Amino acid sequence: MSDSTAQSMAERRDRSHQDLRRKTIAHMLGKTTDLSDGPRRIDPAIYADPERAQAERRELFLKRPILAGFSLDVPNPGDKLLFDVLGPAILIVRNKEGVLNAFLNMCAHRAARLVTECDARTRMTCKFHGWTFDLDGKLIGQPGKEGFEGIEREQLGLIPVPVAEWHGMIFVRGTPGGDPIDVADWLGPMGDELAHLELGKARPIKSSVVHTGANWKYAFDTYGESYHFATLHPSTIGSLAFSNTMSYSPQGLHVRIGFPRADFIEYGSQPEETWPKSDYGGLYMLFPNVSINVNTLPGGGMFYGVSRVFPGETPQECVTLMATYRPAHATEDRPDQDWADIHDFVERVVTTEDYSVSAEGQRNLAWAPEGFRMVFGANEAVLQKQHAQMEAILASSNEG
Ligand code: FES
Ligand SMILES: [Fe+2]
Predict the structure, then answer these.
(1) Residue 400: what pLDDT?
(2) Which of 271, 252, 249, 268 is nearest to 260 (CA)?
(3) Which of 95, 114, 140, 157 is deepest in the core (most CB within 10 A)?
(4) For the domain bounded by 65-181, which CATH number is listed?
(5) pTM, two decimal places
(6) What number does CATH give the domain 3-48+197-399?
(7) Is the pLDDT of residue 1 over 70?
């Protein structure tokens, strides 16, 4: 990237972050929040019904592009990424030319899991009978090959699934075949906003896998509203950000959210020209299951905190992949450990506060009387949007 392009990326990022902060400060000062046109009742069956869970996995997670990681998770030829949470086990590899391939992580012989540990080797050998594949999925080694005469080697390659790398983001589709993934089309107006985060230069610092006894939507719903900050997080998030006030802008299926941070109060009522440079980008929520928190460590240094929530084995379980990245422009003289610390803090809050409430609520739903309905308030507008989109997609798949 040329210097001028890099500069314009930084300028666009600054402008976007400044615009978001201005909106959240207006809400903070006015004690207001963005609202939908009214509350919505929610049938709790959407969190527990096995048929519904199956339809969601098929329509939302396997037919559509899903964020599998970022470019620096697999920077070099031979690097591999195991992406196991969609249902089918998916193997992402960077080939010798630097291009990403994705395959079912399944040997062409008798379907054993091919790669079990990530390394940087340029060949992948199955532990069952030793078949070996190159980084493009071609079978290049077959012990006892006389036993397989009559079948062309070309027919014994790995099974590809669509993968696309776009501005540092890696998307896959868990179903083999079909059209290539058009990331720009999938992201729509959110694309520009994500491009200027320069995710391609964001370094992975720490990641965790969190298993929770709640439906994936119940867990993911906790990311999209600040109504609970003061009550559920009094000594953590609730002391860092204002409760029940947010700005959100729908961007196609996706949405950008801003929650006013507690420190904005120090200068929010002053003229905008006197504000410090913005170090807050808000939440970038990618449909159906991604939240990218663009925020700053206490004392300075931007971090990207990524949470992706996936359905578990049953409708009452989910898996969250949490990861923290250090953007290239976070050049402060601070050790990576500070980014690892913020990762641990967020993970602790999410698991002990948000997800423990989610799991308790999920258990209650099993005993809720016939006809019970939950409610999303007008102040939980993002949840309403998210759920309405899912309903529309599932309804159109039933018609089709
Ligand atoms: S299953 Fe992989 S070599 Fe047999
Ligand atoms: Fe929360």
Answers:
(1) 60
(2) 268
(3) 114
(4) 2.102.10.10
(5) 0.96
(6) 3.90.380.10
(7) no
